[in-house]
Amino acid sequence: MLVSYVDESYSDDFYFIAAAIAPRETWERVAKSFVEIRGATARLHGTALDIELHGHELMGGKGEWTILRGRHREAAGVYLAALKICRVEGVKYVFRGVDLVRLRKRYAKPAAPHGIVFGHLLERIDDYAKRLNEDDKVIVIADEIATQAVHQKEFESYTLTGTPGYRVGDA
Fold it and tell me: Which of 35, 36, 141, 169 is most open to solvent, judged by the fewest CB atoms within 10 Å of its CB?
């Protein structure tokens, strides 16, 4: 069974969602290695042993990572260590995004960027699973967001009828 962790990133001009995909067993090995990273980071920098390896906070020195604010080399070292583990373990990535400026110019009332991009991302996750001949369903894990109820309804619709857009009917 594949597990896909997804997270969004955006600015005023762009909206992206990324997915990190791997079999469940791979994520179990990654999780064990992340415990080692957290332990080393706690010893070297005084962070909590259960600190979340959240890229935005880590690289920006925010939240629990304020101890590394301004210490860019150290923060990048933690981030790089986590990425290296994922590379060694064979985690694959899918990225989808939308140019918000062009979207607003093209449509008078454009759909919400999250729904557009998430639908496209789910299509690509599904394509990846099919290429692997993965018979099981893919578990998709996403952060909670303010409009979660709306997106959950969209997600339920996708599982019944597919995702809307230019790839409708693609085999």
Answer: 169
CA dihedral for 62, 65, 71, 75, sign (positive or negative): negative
Two tokens at 152? 């959950």
Structure-token match 């997270």, residue found: 7
pLDDT tens, residue by residue, 97-154: 999 999 999 999 998 898 889 989 999 998 999 888 766 688 999 876 665 666 566 6
- Give the SS3 label for residue 138: coil
Single pTM value for the model = 0.81
DSSP for 46-112 reads ---TT----HHHHHHT-GGGGGGTT-HHHHHHHHHHHHHHHHHHT-EEEEEEEEHHHHHHH-SSPPP
Cα separation, 153 vs 147, whole angstroms: 11
Q: Which residues pair with 10 in a beta bridge?
A: 15
CA-to-CA dists, residue 39 to 42, 44, 47, 154, angstroms: 5, 9, 9, 39
Q: How far is CA 118 from CA 42, 107, 110, in A?
A: 35, 19, 15
Hey, is 40 helix, strand or coil? helix
